[in-house]
Amino acid sequence: YHALEKARVRAGKTFPSNPGDSLEDQLKPMLEWAHGGFKPTGIEGLKPNNKQPENKTRRRTADDSAASDYCPPPKRLKTNCYNNGKDRGEEDQSREQMALDVSNNKSNLEDSCLSCGRKNPVSFHPLFEGGLCQTCRDRFLELFYMYDD
C-alpha cells in the first residue's frame, strides 16, 4: 500500500475514495493503474523530483489514512536461558568447521546438522541434502509452531 501511495503522490495522480472505504476498496483503483502502466506519465512519472528533495522525516498528519498508520507489532522470539553465549560460540565454531570440511571434501553434508554442525543428525528432509540434530529440530519446530498461530 505504501509503495502505491508514494507512486500516486509522485505521479500527481488522484483516486476517488470515500472515508468509509476499506483498504481493499482503496487499493483496487491503484492496482489497476499500476497494472495499466502508470498512465499517463508512465515509469518516468514515478521517479523522485530532484528539485524538491523528499522529506524522509515527515510527520504524520490527520490527512494520513488510518489504514497506513497500522503496523502490527513484531513477534518476539522466545529466548532460552540455557543457551548462553559460550554455547552459541561453540555452535558457530562447529558450524564453520562443518562448512569448511564439506567444502574441502573432508566430510559429507549429510553427516552433520545443517544448523549447528554437530555430527549424526536425526532428521532429514526429502528435498535437500542434510538434516538437523534433535536439539535444532526441536528449536525449529518450536519456532515453526509459534509463528503458525
Give a description of the structure:
- The protein is mostly helical and 149 residues long.
- It folds into 2 domains: 2-69, Transcription Termination Factor Rho, Rna-binding Domain, Chain A, Domain 1, CATH 1.10.720; 85-148, no CATH class.
- Helix content is 41%, strand content 3%.
- It is built from 5 helices and 2 strands.
- A two-stranded antiparallel ribbon has the order 1-2.
- Strand 1 (123-124) and strand 2 form a beta hairpin.
- The longest helix is centred in the middle third of the chain and has 19 residues, at 85-103.
- Residues 78-82 have low confidence and may be disordered.
SSE blueprint and pairings:
Blueprint: H1 2-11, H2 23-35, H3 66-69, H4 85-103, E1 123-124, E2 131-132, H5 134-148
Antiparallel strand pairs: 1-2
What number of structural domains do the residues give?
A: 2
CATH homology group of the largest domain: PWWP, helical domain
Instruction: Compute the number of strand runs.
Output: 2
Alpha-carbon distance between the termini? 24 Å
Tell me the structural class. mainly alpha
Enumerate the spans where pLDDT stays under 50 for 5 or more consecutive residues: 78-82
CATH architecture tag of the largest domain: Orthogonal Bundle
Which strands sit side by side, in order, in the main sheet? 1-2
Strand content: under 5%
Number of helices: 5
Gross morphology: elongated
Biased composition (Basic and acidic residues): 53-63, 85-95
GO biological process, one term: methylation
GO molecular function: methyltransferase activity
Domain DNMT3 cysteine rich ADD: 94-149
